[in-house]
Amino acid sequence: MKIRFVEPGEPTSGTVVAGVWEGKEPTAAARALDEASAGAISRALALPSRFKGKKDEFLPIFGPPDLKAGRILLAGLGTKGAIEARVLRDLGGNLVAELNRAGEKEARFLLGFGEGLPIGEAEAAAELAYGAELRSYRFAKYRTREKPEKKPTLEELKVETAAAAAARRLHQPFAKRAEAVFFARDLISEPGNVIYPESLAREAEKLKDLGVSVDILDESALRRLGMGALLAVGQGSARPPYLVAMEWRGAAAEEAPLAFIGKGVTFDTGGISIKPSAGMEDMKWDMAGAAVTIGLLRLFAARRAKVNAVGVAGLVENMPSGQAQRPGDIVRSFSGQTIEVINTDAEGRLVLADALSYCQDRFKPRLMIDLATLTGAVVVALGHDRAGLFSNDDELASRLLAAGKAVGEEVWRLPLGESYDREIDSEAADVKNIAGGRDAGSIIGAQFLQRFVAGVPWAHLDIAGVAWSKKDAATVPRGATAFGLRLLDRFVAENYEKN
Ligand code: BES
Ligand code: MN
Ligand code: ZN
Question: What spacing in Å lies between the alpha carbon of 359 and ligand 2's midpoint?
Fold first, then answer.
């Protein structure tokens, strides 16, 4: 789908989309269109209808008289004056879905609201286009016999605004964001036979073309460094583990970097503590944290972010085999702490333990944020609308909460505390990877990670419930979401790039 910003002019084909405020009040552009179409809009609005002009409502008008365009689509805008960036993004996304449902090929959205738009028209145009773009994502490369009626029809969306040139300029960074989101969604969607530790490391390596330094540590390097926890997870697989360290330097050399760490379990069978087979295919996206981390560094480079950032991704496949680690094994982590592995399915924390302490040791970051599909328990607690947030730093936590709200990737803070921490003391080693029972599973997971954070502001995002979606949302079609990418990009732009 192509998106273009155009100056006001006569629509000659496709669908013309005009806005209507809640209470059936047409925008200026809709009133002008009403005149040009012999009153088709006012007539439609006068008829009994469920359409009231609320958000996410649409009303199609076919064959409007006096108009070359084939149809008019009225789009509900919600309360007049309350249409901020997020609402416009959602509108763009919902509009794409609506036009594809209708089978339309091209459309023109009229942004000349006249009044009631609290942000600039160029900014509004860019946001609407961004939402439309995000919704148009598809992962269909393996559908070789797809029926034509399943394919999206919309080829071009024009956003009509008197500020077209400015909109085009403002849209540039958004287009880069959408690109990075698509890149991460593609990686997450790929099955485990295509994306495994080595192939994912190769994908990260491609960031070199954008000016990111990429260091790929193979199994022997990991062994030399003493990453016994990460290695233990990988040892059951025929596919060797890797750790990828990416660096983007967009600020002064002496500025300590922000660090992002991703769980990259390219497939999680559970290992010897094997998972039930029903639904196990979902575990191909147990590398979503790593994909988002790689996508984020790619985005920083693509938009030349004025910040120093590092991304570390621990890449392993968790398999049962004669070489796999056993429940009860004790391993030595990079930090020197020994870990008793009670359950081989609590593997993400083992991978992150080494990735976190290695990151801190090597890069001396000013803060660390990890992303991980860590626990099923976070899905029980928060469902699919919010990720779990854990942090040892209140300011960091509130910045993440705010960034999540702004981009529509919301997080909810859960506690850490000493009494939880005691639950993972081990009789045989320094720490064990699960507690005695199933209580507070997500907190226990976070508590384990915290043992590998040494006095640096840190946050952990448990994205197990949000990395993949079973239903379409305004700007996120069902499937891989790349949750966290837009959030962290916003978090960085808002707090660390303004001098
Ligand atoms: N990758 C899973 C967590 C997960 C579950 C992600 C569902 C997405 C959807 C993780 O490695 C895992 O298996 N966690 C265990 C931990 C338990 C053994 C303490 C879990 O949540 O059951
Ligand atoms: Mn697991
Ligand atoms: Zn896992």
Answer: 22
